[in-house]
Design a protein that fits this description.
Layout (H helix, E strand, L loop, with lengths): L1 H24 L22 E2 L6 E14 L5 E2 L6 E3 L7 E17 L2 E16 L4 E2 L7 E2 L3 E13 L2 E6 L23 E9 L4 E9 L17 E11 L2 E15 L9 E16 L8 E10 L10 H11 L4 E2 L6 E5 L8 E4 L1 E14 L2 E13 L8 E16 L5 E17 L3 H5 L6 E14 L1
Parallel strand pairs: 3-17
Antiparallel strand pairs: 1-2, 2-5, 2-24, 3-4, 5-6, 6-9, 7-8, 9-10, 10-11, 11-12, 12-13, 13-14, 14-15, 15-16, 16-20, 18-19, 20-21, 21-22, 22-23, 23-24
Length: 454
């Protein structure tokens, strides 16, 4: 009897457990059934399907805070040689915090993947990151805490075409520092219409129309068909060892004829740039090691040689604060003689070239360094006009060490040194009397960066 009773009680307990488990699977009146995200692995890690569609999306971005120190440097007037801004009245620190959001959506079609990509960056800056020169040494610098939003990318890619704002197709060197590099770079993207053809064996070729206004050193009097866009192209080979590419661009600079002979109209001058860039992975040194090298020549297209703002940015990066000395402002076209008043002004194109290299080395899994070096030579045409810029010789070296305690969290310290040697054609008597100051300048800048990518 006791055994029968125990068996009945045991059976009742099992039935109760089973019934409870089944009840847990039944729809609840308190909460709707969960809709689980479906992973999309066709395009790599991080993509998931938008519910009810065949479109895959990936979200990402970063937050970066940088703290910069730059010793103050006197700024000199290019026309008189007089002190324009005293070093001891300048801030020596600057702050910038950035936040970036990336949205990458992809949908399969009969003619390849249709991709929509948006990358928005917002930044808040102050100190030397935001100071502007006052031209009055007694009043120091003008500084505000400013927030702005930049569209780095907003593009549609399909069947080999790219429409919208995307990476520039000439500049292929990476950037590891905030201040201007001695090579071309376009962190704010480039408005374009481009087509990329992909061949076998890792070969590809791109041809693009790119908005002239997004280039450094834009010099156009009117946005006519000949000056509104540059034609840019590259041929590239991608392999397991890295990549190699040749690239070129052609375009026009223009001047209102009133600047030449007082007439109504526009005169255009052809410009071009050619270059090569290559990168090699170096696992024989350490896993993740890589080197990039590049060389470029330009005539009337200085934006192909230097970061947006170019050598002016080297002199005025952080708003007149990186180099000091004479604030150099180069142009693609330089007046070589005559005058507009006499109707006989003449112009010619500025030429230049550069050599550059960058290297990433992993000391250990959590420790790496970035090193870069570059040299730029700018040669304006010979001119008879007073106080016209002559040649510029710029070289720069940078080094940094980055600690990553966990994946995608970087804490880095960076040092940059730049040296600029200028000449001036036909300096004014006042500039000569002042001893031609500020033509050979150098400075160093340091930054602490904390960045988390997601």
């Amino acid at each position: 009897m006791s055994f029968t009773k125990s068996a009945l009680l045991g059976s009742a307990a099992v039935l109760a457990v089973v019934a409870g488990a089944q009840a847990a699977d039944l729809p609840s009146k308190k909460a709707a059934p969960a809709t689980y995200v479906k992973i999309c692995d066709a395009y790599g890690a991080g993509f998931f399907y938008i519910p009810g569609t065949d479109t895959c999306v990936k979200l990402g971005g970063y937050v970066r805070s940088e703290y910069q120190y730059v010793p103050g440097k006197d700024t000199i007037s290019a026309s008189t040689g007089a002190l324009q801004q005293s070093a001891n009245l300048q801030s020596t620190t600057g702050f910038e915090t950035r936040g970036r959001i990336d949205v990458d959506a992809r949908t399969p079609t009969a003619m390849g993947v249709a991709r929509t990509f948006v990358r928005l960056r917002a930044a808040n800056t102050s100190g030397i990151r935001n100071e502007t020169i006052t031209n009055q040494a007694a009043y120091g610098m003008s500084d505000n805490s400013t927030t702005g939003i930049t569209i780095e990318s907003a593009m549609v890619q399909w069947a080999g075409f790219t429409f919208g704002v995307g990476p520039e197709n000439y500049a292929l060197m990476p950037s590891f520092i905030y201040n201007a590099n001695p090579w071309a770079g376009f962190p704010n993207g480039m408005k374009q219409i481009a087509y990329t053809a992909t061949f076998g064996g890792g070969y590809s070729a791109t041809i693009a129309l790119e908005d002239r206004k997004d280039f450094g050193y834009d010099q156009t009097a009117l946005d006519t068909a000949s000056t509104a866009a540059n034609i840019v192209g590259n041929v590239r080979l991608d392999q397991a060892w890295g990549f190699a590419a040749i690239h070129a661009m052609i375009g026009n600079n223009s001047l209102n004829d009133t600047a030449i002979n007082g007439a109504v109209g526009q005169t255009t001058y052809n410009g071009y740039a050619v270059g090569a860039t290559a990168s090699f992975k170096l696992p024989m040194i350490a896993a993740g090691d890589q080197i990039w090298v590049g060389a470029n020549y330009a005539k009337g297209m200085l934006g192909a040689l230097l970061s947006s703002g170019g050598l002016s940015n080297m002199s005025t990066a952080s708003n007149h604060r990186l180099m000091g000395g004479v604030v150099r402002v180069d142009t693609n076209l330089v007046q070589t003689g005559g005058s507009a008043a006499a109707g006989n002004a003449t112009f010619d194109s500025t030429t230049g070239w550069n050599l550059n290299a960058a290297f990433t080395h992993y000391w250990a899994a959590q420790w790496r360094s970035n090193f870069s070096a570059g040299y730029v030579s700018i040669s304006p045409p010979t001119s008879t006009v007073a106080s016209t810029w002559g040649s510029a010789k710029l070289w720069e070296v940078t080094g940094g060490v980055i600690y990553s305690p966990v994946k995608d969290l970087d804490i880095g310290l960076e040092v940059q040194y730049a040296n600029l040697k200028n000449t001036m054609q036909n300096p004014t008597a006042a500039f000569v009397a002042a001893g031609s100051p500020g033509l050979n300048v150098n400075n160093i800048t340091t930054k602490l960066r904390v960045e988390r990518t997601f």
